[in-house]
Amino acid sequence: MTSRVTDESRRRLLLALAGTGALAGLEALLPGYARGAPLTPRAGNAAQVNGGVPGPVLLDFDVRRERVAIAGGHGSGITINRSIPAPLVELWEGQQAHLRIHNHLDEDTSIHWHGLLLPFQMDGVPGVSFPGIAPGETFEVRFPVRQSGTYWYHSHSGMQEQKGLTGPLVVHPASPHRVTADREFVVMLNDWTFDDPHRIMARLKSSGEYYNFNQRTVGDFFDAVEKEGWAATVRDRLAWNNMRMSPRDIADVTGATYSYLMNGLHPAVGWEGVFRPGERIRLRVINASAMTYFNFRIPGLAMTVVGADGEQVEPVDTDEFQIGVAETYDVIVEPQADRAYTLVAESMDRSGQALGTLTPRPGMRAAVPDLRKPPQRTMMDMGMDHGGMAGMAGMSGMTHGASASKGMDHGGMAGMSGMNHGASASKGMDHGGMAGMNHGAMEAGGGMGPVVGQHGPGDHGPGNINVAETLRYRLGEPGTGLEDVGHRVLTYSQLRNVRPMRDQRPPSRTIELHLTGNMERYMWSFDGVKYSESEPIDIVLGDRIRLVLINDTMMEHPIHLHGMFMELENGQGDRLPFKHTLSVLPASRASLLLTADEPGRWAFHCHLLYHMDAGMFRVVRVAPAEVLSHV
C-alpha cells in the first residue's frame, strides 16, 4: 500500500512539474536518442530514419547499468551506448551485419533481434540458442540481412527489458520501397517503471489485481441495479465471482506504476517530429513495452497501414489500430494543413497514454484528448456465453451441445462455406478456406466474431483456472475497448500480403496449443504446463504445419515465434499476411501456417514479460527427421 501511495504522489508531482515546465528540463538530462530532439529546426531527427548508402554494418553495443533521468524522475536503468531507449539500428537488405555486444554489467545479458531471420545461434535467447553473455564478455553477431522492414531488439535475460534494454531496428530494402515516403520516423512505445521488476512480479504473485485501480465498487453495483434490475445484477456478480474473475481485469500492470513513453519521452514532454505540409510520412510504430497494449491514433489525420511486423501488406486506410506487445505497424500519413497533430498511444486499460506531436514548426502543439472510459470484459470474453450465439447466422447447422473435438455438425454452416468441414476443431479447422465468412460485418467494429467451436474435454490442470467453452473467430474484431469508437479501426482480417504465398502445400500436421493461466496464483503456461516442465515442440525441417492457438484465458496474449514468420489464416486466400507476433484474443481460436525452413532451436512465447517469466514459453525445435528421431 505504501508503494501505491508513492506512485500516486509521483504522478501528482509529474503533473505539477509539467505545468511549470520543469519536467521538460528534467527530460533534457536524458542521453542522446532517449532525449529525443531539442526544440530546434532539427527537432525530431533523433527518431528520424535517415537511410543512406547501402552497405555492410559494423556496430558496437555497450550494455551498462546506469542512473538515468527518465519519465520525470531518476532511476537505475540498463542502457546501450548510454541511452534508453537504445540507439536506432539501420541495416540494409542483401548486406552483412556485424554487431558486437559488450557486457559491462555484473550479470549476464543478451540481445534478441526481434523478427529478424538469422542463424539460431545469433538469436540471443539464453538457454535456448546460446548460453548468454557473461559479465566482461563480448558476443559477436554476424549474419546476412535477408529481409527489410520495421523491427526492434531487446534483452532476453531476466527482467532487463523492463529496465530499458530495448531499441528500434529498421532494415532498408535492396530495391526501392514499394510505398514511398518523403520522411520516416520511428515511433517506439515503452512502459517505464521506477519499481524493481522482481518486486512487481512478487506483488502480482500475491495478488494478480494489485495494480488494478479500476475494480467495481458498491456504487457501480447500485448503478447496475438501476439499469439492469436486481436479479440481473446479482446474477452477473455471482457469475463473475464464481469464476474468481473481474470484468475490469484488462491489464496486469497499469498506469499505477507505469509511465507510458513515446521514443523515451514522458507524455508531459512528448516526442516531436517536424514535417512540411503535403509530405508523405512513414511512421514505424513499435510496441516495445513489457506489458502494455496500446491503441494508436492521430486525431484529425487518417492513416494508411502498409506494413505489419516488418512485412508489407496491401494498403488499408484506418483511423486507429490496437498494437499488441512486440508488434510493429508501418503507416503512411499525409498532413496537408499547416497545423500540429497529436500522436496518441492510449494504454488498452485507459490508465495512461504516451504522446507525441507531428508539427510543421518546433514547439507547436495540438489538443490532447482525454483518456476514454475504461473497457470491460464480457462473459463472451470468458468463452461462457452460450446464449450469445446469435451471431452464428449462417451457422445454423452447428451442434453447440457437443464439443468440437467430439464432432461438430458442420453440414449446416452455410455462412462458412469455405471451411474444411471434415476436420474437427481440435484437430485443425481449415481457416485458410474461410473466404466464405462475412469478415466485413465484423470489420465495422460491431460485435464479436462467430463461434467456430467449443472446448474439448479437459481443463489443463491446476495451471489453468478457466476453460473457454465457446470458441470464437475474432480476427475481424478491432480489439478490446475499440468496438464502438465511431471511426475506422484496423482488424487482423484486413491484413493482406502483397505477394502470394510461396509455399501453398497443404499442412501435413496440426499442432494445437491452449493458452492457459491461473490469475490467482499468477501462473501462465501453454496447455497448463509451465516452461520448466515442458518438452520441445519438434517440427521436421521443411515441413508445412498448421499451428492452432486457443486462448482459454480472459486476457489477450501476444504470442511470438522466433526465427520464422507465420502466415495468419485470416480469410485472405493465397495472400495470407506474415506475422512474427499474434495477439490472440480471449476465448478465441486462431490458426497460422508455418513452413519450418529455419533449422535450430527457437523460442516461442507470450511476449507479456511477466507471463513469459511465469512459464508461458516453449522451445520449437526444427531439424531433419533423422536428427529429431535421435534427440
Automatic annotation (TrEMBL):
Protein name: Copper resistance system multicopper oxidase
Alphabetic keyword roster: Copper, Metal-binding, Oxidoreductase
GO molecular function: copper ion binding; oxidoreductase activity
Gene3D superfamilies, per the entry: Cupredoxins - blue copper proteins
UniProt lineage: Bacteria, Pseudomonadati, Pseudomonadota, Gammaproteobacteria, Oceanospirillales
Species annotation: Salinicola endophyticus
Spans annotated as Disordered: 353-376
Domain Plastocyanin-like: 63-174, 185-349, 505-625
GO CC field: periplasmic space
Top-rank taxon: Bacteria
Keyword Metal-binding: yes
SUPFAM superfamilies, per database record: Cupredoxins
PROSITE patterns on file: MULTICOPPER_OXIDASE1 (PS00079), MULTICOPPER_OXIDASE2 (PS00080), TAT (PS51318)
